[in-house]
Write a structure and sequence with these properties.
Elements: E1 2-3, H1 15-25, E2 29-34, E3 37-38, H2 41-52, E4 56-61, E5 64-65, E6 71-72, H3 76-79, E7 89-93, E8 101-102, E9 105-106, E10 113-116, E11 120-124, E12 128-129, H4 130-135, E13 138-143, H5 146-159, E14 168-169
Parallel strand pairs: 2-4, 3-12, 4-7
Antiparallel strand pairs: 1-13, 2-10, 5-6, 7-14, 8-9, 10-11, 11-13
């Protein structure tokens, strides 16, 4: 699949449509990891419907919490603020203090993943932004190999373990 300019060389499916399809496939759990996220009204609408179906949704973003307890960062968690407080939706982040130092800066969460249950995953270069899903030149692949998807999901879930895991829940 791809986003951005299309060519006549091969048929492609738009990243935005594939992202929605993978989200709709979730029956018990959905894991979404992205650096940037903003806009994406269709994605937020679909995530709301997914949470309403009782699917457990974990959203891992490059973000932080302000002193007042609100979601902050490059728009990532703020774009999904309407989902905040829902029982079946949990936001996660990688606090600066838990990141390896790289000279004067720290490592960044840069992965892009949408995994439905442990069966199907969308891996690609696109962040969850309207531009990335529709206009930027991006690529992605849908992985429908349960063993491989399970391995990816379990890796992230291990990073979410209380105590040793570097990811922490927001709010």
């Amino acid at each position: 699949m791809a986003s951005g300019p299309l060519s006549d060389a091969v048929p492609v499916r738009l990243t935005s449509q594939v992202a929605l399809e993978v989200i709709r496939e979730a029956t018990t759990s959905l894991l979404i990891v992205s650096f940037a996220a903003h806009g994406v009204t269709e994605i937020v609408t679909e995530l709301t419907a997914t949470a309403d179906r009782g699917v457990h949704v974990d959203l891992v973003f490059e973000t932080s919490v302000t002193a007042g307890g609100t979601l902050d960062g490059p728009g990532a968690a703020a774009a999904f603020q309407s989902l905040h407080g829902r029982e079946s939706v949990r936001f996660w982040h990688w606090p600066q203090a838990r990141r390896p130092a790289l000279g004067r800066s720290r490592a960044a969460l840069h992965a892009k993943l949408i995994a439905a249950d442990e069966r199907t995953a969308l891996l690609g270069s696109a962040n969850l932004t309207d531009r990335a899903l529709k206009e930027n030149l991006e690529i992605g692949v849908v992985l429908r190999e349960p063993a491989a998807v399970r391995s990816l999901v379990r890796h992230f879930r291990s990073l979410m373990r209380p105590g040793p895991g570097p990811l922490e829940p927001l709010g």
